[in-house]
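Re: your question about Isoaspartyl peptidase

S., sorry for the slow reply, the queue was backed up all week. Below is exactly what I fed in.
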Amino acid sequence: MQKLTLVIHGGAGTINKEEMSDELEQAYLKGLQEALNGGFAVLQEGGSAVNAVKAATVILEDNLLFNAGRGSVFTKKGLQEMDAAIMDGKNLEAGAVAGVRNVRNPIELATEVLINSNHVFLSGKGANDFAIKQGVKLEPDEYFFSQFRYDQWKAVRDSDNYTLDHTLHDLNELKEKKFGTVGAVACDQNGNIAAATSTGGMTNKKYGRIGDSPLIGSGTYANNNTCAISCTGHGEVFIRAVAAYDVSALMEYKGLTVEEACNEVVLNKLVKMEGEGGLISVDKQGNFVMVFNSAGMYRGVKSSDGTNEVAIYK
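Result:
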């Protein structure tokens, strides 16, 4: 019997229990569970891994707590610019978007790119034009406004610093940070796997900066022969490490298990490069990994063997 598995994340970084109110902690756990339930329902109904990861990611994008979709952070110009990617492990087809504005669910636009364009990656105004053509739901700027994200931005907007989601620091002060990204990986009833990742990027980012999330092989990757991966972390390092594909390559060429490969990349290679964050992964047997080298990672897994877990801290 094929094992159905869905794994999700809502970002990683310096997430300490002592700095989190009970109320906020419960809100995060509830948000993670809702996304797990929504995505897993697709698998239970016989749906594809691609549709399951999309469904879970949409729920996270709609939740103000997470830095993706509605909860996206402010750029230097005081706007939201969002990135997303989705990949089908069955045929290695992928869709990605970067720097899109006013798109309610960037992961839905990435899925449209996968299915209905002859391309893999669209950016900026062109991606927005494609969204309109495909009837992807748009929202006004006000929809993406949240006071606490605005306050984060206000604190750094007159400087050249950018912050990795919540906490304030500059690049030379890497004590406290949270990498806000959401993602999902899944294995369906046919043993097909898929990955999806979506993010609002960095607070106060300039020059149309793009992180690892929408880059196939860096932040998102899926191949039925190996595994599906969604990353969250300091995007620049994950890009240079080609982190997601590296996990797959270790499995394909070295014969490592999904757990061994993920541990090698996150706990060894990225650490040596001073790359903080984590990733989630699943293989075609439904085996899963949730590994991170930071203080915490918002994460969850639900499987047809009865596993159901949501967690934040180490």
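Residues 137 and 223 are 29 Å apart (CA to CA). The chain is about 30% helix and 25% strand.

Happy to talk it through on Thursday.
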